[in-house]
Structure formats: structure tokens, C-alpha cells
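Sample pair:
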Amino acid sequence: MFGKFKYHILLHLIILMWGFTGILGKIIPLDPIPIVWYRVLIAVVSLGLILPLLKRSLKLNSFREFIYLGLVGIVVALHWVTFYMAIDLSTASLGILCLSTTTIHVAWLEPIVMGRKFSWIEMALGLIVIYGIYFVSSDFDAKEFEALAYGLTSALLAATFSVFNGKLAMTMAPSKITFYEMLVGGVFLTVLLIFRGEMNAGLLDLVWEDVLWLLFLGLLCTSFAFLVTVELLKRLGAFTVSLSINMEPVYTIVLAIVLLGENKIVGTQFYIGSTIIVAVVIANPILKRVMRKSS
């Protein structure tokens, strides 16, 4: 009993760390692309060192697998970049709230990619989420609408790589998937920084506080969180883990209020919309479970 309880605590610590990634977008004084570049770089180096020690093979069966993983890796990188762009233009609360709309896109993407039956319940919940976004954005200015566009794009990209990773995981180890996606995502962002003229000495001009936050983001929030989550899936089951992850928006908004004082920036309409969206996100897996039992 206690053994399982400690895994629940560990799971929520991981989710809290994920919730903190949005806060770091405000704390670290870097543009979105460099933040993600550092995150991916630290993650791929740490995974490249840790996975062989854990005897996890990184060998691919074909070059086609590498191309497939690479394309998904670019989507992951763009997802993080657009997520931090939304936060940079507005608030951490808005960024994570937009990310809650990922389930809307999963509802129509999964039937196409995975060949499963279309869920009208998921689509109905998605429409309720859109209603929540209406409340959130009712008093936005032009800059905040731009942030909303980036945030919703980030959610679409998150749904895309989640669905394709679900398909890849049927035939490939999650550790292998993550390593190569981080590797290609890092190469893609390096090329992007060179193209934008930002790959220079200024990129390395960091104070120790920034370095520590970036290490926290890359090592704990990415590499460590990934490895632990894979183990927790075995211990607690996919449903418990997915249901608990729905608490991430709640944790982020609470952290944003405590650490960034965002309650002074956003108004009542934001919290009405937030409540609607978070309620739908939490209700989604519960309704699915009930439907499965009744069928």
C-alpha cells in the first residue's frame, strides 16, 4: 500500500516539474529558440550518457526509422518553441492553458493515424474547451491574441507528436524514440539559430543562475522526468498516469500566481475560462473509463 503511495507522490512531483517548465520561460532571460536549444542539447547529452549505462540499446533497424523519428523530433522542437513564444508574449498561465487543448486535436488525429474509432465524446469535450478559450480571450489585446495563436499552434504540434509517438511506441522502445527525437530536434534548432544569425558567442553569455535553471529544465524536467515516467507507467498503469498529468495546468497556474504574481495580470474572465478548460481536461479520461465499463 505504502509502496504504491510513494509512486503516486513521485508522479505528482514529476508533473509539478513539468508545470514549472512554463514558469522557466519567464524566469530564464533568453528568447524561446535558445531556451529550447539548451533544453534539447542538455537532454540529448544526458540521455546519451545514461541510456547505455542502463543497457538501453540505441540501435535503429533502418535509416527510414531515423527519418521518421527525425521528422517527429522537429515537430517536438517546434512545439516547445511555440509554447515558449506564447509565454514570452503573455503569461505562463496562458501558455499552459492553450496546451490543454491538445486533446481536441488528438480526438481527430488518432482515428486518422491509429485507425481507431472516432470519439464524439472527445469532440464534444473539445467544443467545451473552445467555449472556455472564448472566456479566456474575451478581453485580449493584439499581443495576447498573438500569444494565443502561438499557444494553440503549440497544442496542435503536441497532439501531432503524441499521436505519432504512440504509433512508434508499438514497435520501438520509448528511450530510443526520445533520444533520436531530441538529437534531430537539436540539430534542427542549431540550423535555425545559424540561419537567424543567433549562433554566436552571445548564446553562451549566461550567468550561473541561468545555467542552473537550464540544467534543471534539461536534466530533471526532460531526461529524468522521461525515464521515471516510463517506470511509473509500469507501476501505476497508463490510466492513472494520464489522469494525473491532467493536473499540470492547475500546478502551473498556482505556481504562476505564487512565483510570478500573474493573478494581478489576468482577470476574472481568465479564471472562468481556466476552470472550464481544466474541468474538461480532468473529466475526459474519467468519462472514457465509464464508457469502457458500460460497453
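The chain has a mean pLDDT of 84.
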